[in-house]
Specification:
six-stranded mixed sheet; about 210 residues; globular; alpha+beta; binds coenzyme A; Aminopeptidase
Amino acid sequence: MNENIVIRRETPADFRAAEELTREAFWNVYRPGCMEHYLLHVLRDDPDFIAELDLVMERDGQLIGHIMYMRAEIHADGGNVIPVMTFGPVSIRPDVQRMGYGTMIVRHSMRMAAELGAGALCIEGNAAFYGKCGFAAAYTRGIRWQGEPENASSPHNLLCVLKEGFLDGITGVYCTPPGYFVDDAAVEAFDATFPPKAKAKKPAVDITK
Ligand SMILES: CC(C)(COP(=O)(O)OP(=O)(O)OC[C@H]1O[C@@H](n2cnc3c(N)ncnc32)[C@H](O)[C@@H]1OP(=O)(O)O)[C@@H](O)C(=O)NCCC(=O)NCCS
């Protein structure tokens, strides 16, 4: 590719633009409207937020992507609490999706997470996309999701071990950081600060299926 791609830390000057980008990327994809721009807005102030892994991607000086990470935990069946990381929302501007930028920012951020000491990442997402970045269904490694049945085998609950052996011999429950659970009314109030946008009654696309 003959273009100037930069991945760098998000700064306060990027905040609103990254939220707009996130809103555009997620709008009507998983539900009518979306909540991910609000998530980004509030998670920056969350104790689990990892500022070093709050990244924007620019192409020729224009914002085209964003990703952010949070600290999370696996509660091992033996009683230990294992620190891991999770990420999301991750967004690529709709007009430049399916051109490899999502893979690029995810892989880049995963390398940074490993350098910061992360042993494993747990996320919810589309296996077709994240499989290309090294993720596999978490249940195949004995990692279950908090709130889901013991024997659930969701293909969307994904795990990637970054440090060899990090989860060897460990089974347990992944706990989504509490900051990801937000109030619908707060999402609506925040969304009202953006230009009006039509919600589709049914999701237009669902890449998790
Ligand atoms: C998901 C997202 C970040 C992927 O970024 P991207 O730049 O479009 O992805 P890439 O071009 O790197 O795609 C790599 C592969 O992932 C898979 N993939 C990506 N987007 C997909 C989609 N919408 N449907 C099905 N597969 C998809 C494909 O296998 C793709 O390879 P291909 O284009 O050769 O078929 C981006 O599409 C996006 O912002 N989507 C809306 C928000 C969202 O869903 N975020 C992720 C939540 S889990």
